[in-house]
Amino acid sequence: MRIGVLTGGGDCPGLNAVIRAVVRKGESVYGHHFVGYRDGWRGPLTGDTVALDTAAVRGILPRGGTILGSSRTNPYAAVDGVDLIRRNLAADGVDAIIAIGGEDTLGVAARLHADGVAVVGVPKTIDNDLSATDYTFGFDTAVNIATEAVDRLHTTAESHHRVLIVEVMGRHAGWIALHSGMAGGANVILIPERPFDFDKVCAFVESRFATHYAPIIVVAEGATPIAGTMATSDTELDAFGHVRLQGIAAVLETEIRGRTGRDARATVLGHLQRGGTPTAFDRWLATRFGLHAVDAVHEGDFGVMVALHGTRIDRVPLAEAIGELKTVPAELYAEAAVFFG
Ligand code: F6P
Fold it and tell me: What pTM, to 2 d.p., does this model score?
């Protein structure tokens, strides 16, 4: 078989590990051939390919980003997008596609499968918000980067008796905030699933100062105050209709200063959480996803996504994989709240 591989959506550490595993096993065990598509769905849409064989994937296991490039291109927003993809796959002699992506990229994969294109999905996102898999690779790396930032902010916050606010990514899910906040011993963790009360946040801040420590607040980019509106830095939408989230830490900074008179400063971690080398866990998970994805293609089991359940890799229907956003349940947040204040 000739198999196309693409990476779509926001990049994350571990994408290259998937590509390497797919190609290494596909060539050496099954004798398949591969072609890389550049920049997510833009590749098959425009016929933009790159050579992909064992030589091309040497040395990429620990490298962040993606050798194939990524974009948030939505072929269903393009005129005749599906027909163009079909035509380009036929011209390239490609029998099937392995699409590595999050909710949006896999949403396109599910629609293409329904439209008769042979696709297998691999879940990735630092947000960890896909309900069909216990974890996505990229998440562990992002959590470790955010945790290190919290550790570092503790010492400087205490030197200056300041409130330091760390804004982390995660879109509409609070997983990165929850895990890094717990691991870093945050004073308060604010997540999108639970609108927050400014007065309570300020009370936590004061109780922390009362114990002669300085408060660190970890806030997810999608968190909102009760009865507030979503803080956004602009109103521009991407091809999948998502607004860019950023700015809640600055709002908190102003409010905490105004209400408590304390010095408060915001740090926005932004794309630092997505760049650089993947953790061992993410390399392990990404590699296993790649091995199992190429098995699915080899067996002709299309329209599925590989998923982690416990330590087992299963296949789940793509439609199920993108059905529901996985958000932080109340009981997990309650565990973290034991340490607030
Ligand atoms: O979905 C991954 C993610 O990093 C989110 O956490 C964040 O909201 C978004 O992508 C940022 O996207 P971009 O890199 O396009 O600004």
Answer: 0.94
* CA atoms in the 13 A half-sphere facing the CB of 212: 0
**What is the rounded distance in angstroms from the CA atom of residue 144 to the CA atom of residue 183?**
9
Asked if the model's pLDDT at residue 185 lies above 60, the reply is yes
Please tell me whether residue 113 adopts helix, strand or coil conformation.
helix
The pLDDT tens digits for 295-314 are 999 999 999 999 999 999 99
Q: Is the CB of 169 under 6 A from ligand 1?
A: yes
39 is catalytic: no
CA atoms within 13 A on the CB side of 22: 35
Catalytic one among 11, 127, 140, 295?
Answer: 127
Q: Cα(274) to centroid of ligand 1, in Å?
A: 9
Q: Say if ligand 1 is within 6 A of residue 328 CB.
A: no
194: nearest Cα among 240, 148, 225, 237: 225
The Cα 189–Cα 124 span in angstroms is 24
Q: Which residue has the tokens 């290190």?
A: 148
Q: Is the CB of 138 inside a 6 Å radius of any atom of ligand 1?
A: no
C-beta of 171 in contact with ligand 1 (< 6 A): yes
CB-based contacts of 123: which residues, under 8 Å, 6+ apart? 101, 102, 106, 130, 132, 133, 136, 289, 305, 306, 307, 321
Protein residue with its CA nearest to atom 12 in ligand 1: 10
Task: Give the angle 223-229-235 at the CA atoms, nearest 5°.
Answer: 95
Per-residue pLDDT band at 234 (split at 50, 70, 90): low
Average the pLDDT over 93-110 and give the result: 96
CA distance 15 to 113: 22
Query: Is residue 123 in contact with ligand 1, taking CB distance under 6 Å?
Result: no
Q: How far is the CA of 169 from the centre of ligand 1 (A)?
A: 7
Contact 304, 121 (CB under 8 A): yes
